[in-house]
Write a structure and sequence with these properties.
This protein has 152 residues and is mainly alpha-helical. Helix content is 33%, strand content 7%. α2 packs across α3.
Length: 152
């Protein structure tokens, strides 16, 4: 649906999560692909037809004509990009080897494009701090405070 505000897409994502539904189960229920739901929830309103969006609106009680009460600024979205997926088999990670030891570099832009709670690629709960020492995250595969890898 081309004329839909991308912030409204985020409201649908939040409503689905609050209802305890997976993207796959919702897709099966309304008759579309899980990947379309995923791209729609990332803010691309063109990935679902108007009919599908209306089904979602009825299901979650979202008024498509009402203005978004909490618009999300681009700065707020970028600021919240701090989660990483702890799942070593998540396809978003880049695997590399240093001195024979394997490391996984988390792709935080791909796994957490909107500052969500779950990995946008595999659905795992995202972590926001180093699990070993609790330090804030930084780009890379290893914590700068304790030297432990983020993903094992």
């Amino acid at each position: 649906m081309k004329n839909l505000d991308s912030n409204l897409c985020f409201r649908f994502r939040d409503a689905r999560r609050e209802a305890g539904l997976s993207q796959q189960s919702l897709a099966m229920e309304i008759g579309c692909n899980q990947s379309a739901i995923s791209m729609f929830e990332k803010g691309d309103p063109t990935k679902l037809s108007g009919e599908m969006v209306e089904k979602l609106a009825r299901k979650f009680g979202i008024d498509l004509t009402a203005p978004n009460p909490h618009p999300v600024s681009t700065e707020a979205i970028i600021e919240r990009h701090s989660g990483y997926c702890p799942n070593p088999s998540c396809p978003s990670h880049t695997r590399y080897t240093v001195d024979g030891e394997a490391f996984f570099r988390p792709n935080r832009e791909e796994t957490d494009p909107v500052g969500g709670k779950y990995c946008a690629v595999c659905g795992e709960v995202l972590l926001r701090r180093c699990t070993h020492c609790g330090a804030k995250l930084h780009p890379g595969a290893v914590c700068s405070m304790c030297g432990k890898p983020y993903v094992c």
